[in-house]
Amino acid sequence: MCLGIPGELVEFVEEPSDLAVVEVGGVRRRINIGLLADERLQPGDWVLVHVGFALSKISEREAQAVLDYLQELGQPYEDELEALRASDGA
């Protein structure tokens, strides 16, 4: 199962400029924010992340609702977080 997981934008990466660092479940990872070039992103914003790409900007309320739902899924969510932990870090 593939999931889109909310991540909080922590910082921007200078080079290449289409990368940013998000925190997902206590894990920080670089993601590509190029699909959101028209958005005014800033640290503290929430984005929906899938396979290393920010797909959309979401509100903190929506992020929390999705996180609550994902936690209810149990093992699929834990598997996704484990895969994230095992991938290259920020």
UniProtKB/TrEMBL annotation:
GO biological process, one term: protein maturation
Entry-linked SUPFAM superfamilies: HupF/HypC-like
Pfam families xrefs: HupF_HypC
Signal peptide (UniProt feature, chain positions): none
Molecular-function annotations in GO: carbon dioxide binding; iron ion binding
Domain of life: Bacteria
InterPro entries: Hydrogenase_HupF/HypC
Gene3D superfamilies: 2.30.30.140
Similarity section: Belongs to the HupF/HypC family.
Record-given protein name: Hydrogenase expression/formation protein HypC
Species name: Nonomuraea jiangxiensis
